[in-house]
Amino acid sequence: MTKRYDQRYFDTWYRKRGIGGAQRLARKVALAVATAESHLERPLRSVLDIGCGEGAWRAPLLRLRPKLRYLGFDGSEYAVRRYGQRRNLHLARFADFATLRPCPPVDLLVCSDVMHYLRLKELDRGLPGLADLCGGVAFLETFTREDRTVGDEVDFQARSAAFYRGRFEALGFRQLGSHCWLSPALAGDVAALELPPRVAGG
């Protein structure tokens, strides 16, 4: 049976079960915004949200930075049909970012709670697009087999942290911590102690 990101899915996980919750999301958004602005040394202007679902990041982002441009993409036909016009959401699968370049590189690229559900072929096809489209900081919230997770386990791909770290670093991202990664464009302009130590075998 193919997993469907339909209204029932979002009602179940984001409304009935309340995975994450509004306050937790607001803290993640504030962290991502502050990290990006710290490295850009200016206010945030643009956000690209890949795998955005119903566009949950949009409202807390705009509360912090009302003038920023938010653009979201998701493979859920339901989410785009229902919220696309109001929240600037568009239909695309992760693998489409092998070639899809819908905007100039953004200040903050968000890909939250997405990559650990993707098959390897789709993940590897789309990843280079994230590096091309990020001009500041990427918030790449991804969970691994080393983590104790609570939530949707259907199609969860139990890969190691080293696997993702290797993929991201091969594209030029530099790890900042707390799911934040410095874009290839800024990777050479960072102090040594802003970065975590290299992990052996990672």
TrEMBL record:
Q: Does the keyword S-adenosyl-L-methionine apply?
A: no
Keywords of this entry: Methyltransferase, Transferase
Q: Which GO terms describe its biological process?
A: methylation
Care to name a GO molecular-function term for this sequence?
Answer: methyltransferase activity
InterPro entries from the UniProt entry: Methyltransf_12, SAM-dependent_MTases_sf
Q: Which residues form the Methyltransferase type domain?
A: 48-133
| CDD domains recorded | AdoMet_MTases (cd02440)
Q: Tell me the protein's name.
A: Class I SAM-dependent methyltransferase
What organism is recorded for this protein? Luteimonas viscosa
